[in-house]
Design a protein that fits this description.
GO terms for molecular function: acyltransferase activity, transferring groups other than amino-acyl groups. By secondary structure, the chain is of the alpha+beta class. The chain has a single domain, classed as Gcn5-related N-acetyltransferase (GNAT) (Aminopeptidase), CATH 3.40.630. Helix content is 23%, strand content 30%. The protein is built from 4 helices and 7 strands. The chain has a 7-stranded mixed beta sheet, sandwiched between helices. The protein is globular.
């Protein structure tokens, strides 16, 4: 089932509480931090150029995405210029094609900026997000960072 009108919106005082209330399914919370924690992390790491948006389906907030956006080469701790740092779809809206739609929009934005690859990572375990990323075309780099497997998606030629 594909969800129509999936789009990204800035997080404002008007929608912050609703976006922070989004929750993943039980067991998935081991793999992704809450929106509130993610926003705190973004504030604590301005050198990562955090870029985050609420995911909407129609007028309903249904998810959250945060990237390290166009990070300058040589930035300590950075993995690539574009890194999908946090990504969650609320438990009530999963398995509707929303995650795929959002990631496609993110990739289009990165390409428009001249980006040629997108990195992300995941912690292995029961219920891990690897199958989603694998279906999208991400491949393991062979690197592990703080227990998380690093993945890369080449954006050229897709």
């Amino acid at each position: 089932m594909t969800s129509p009108d999936v789009h990204l919106r800035e997080i404002t005082d008007e929608n912050r509480d609703a976006v922070c209330a989004l929750r993943v399914e039980a067991g998935q919370d081991d793999f992704v931090a809450s929106v509130a924690t993610s926003l705190d992390d973004a504030a604590e790491e301005p050198e990562s150029n955090p870029w985050y948006r609420a995911v909407y389906s129609g007028d309903e907030p249904v998810g959250f995405v945060m990237l390290r956006w166009n990070v300058p080469p040589g930035t300590p701790g950075a993995i690539g210029r574009y890194f999908l740092w946090r990504f969650l779809i609320d438990r009530r809206y999963q398995r509707r094609g929303i995650g795929r739609a959002v990631l496609t929009q993110i990739i289009d934005r990165i390409r428009a900026e001249g980006g040629t690859e997108l990195f992300t990572s995941y912690e292995p375990g029961e219920g891990e997000p690897w199958p989603f990323y694998q279906r999208f075309g991400f491949e393991p780099t062979g690197e592990i960072d703080d227990g998380e497997i690093i993945l890369r998606l080449a954006l050229s030629g897709r």
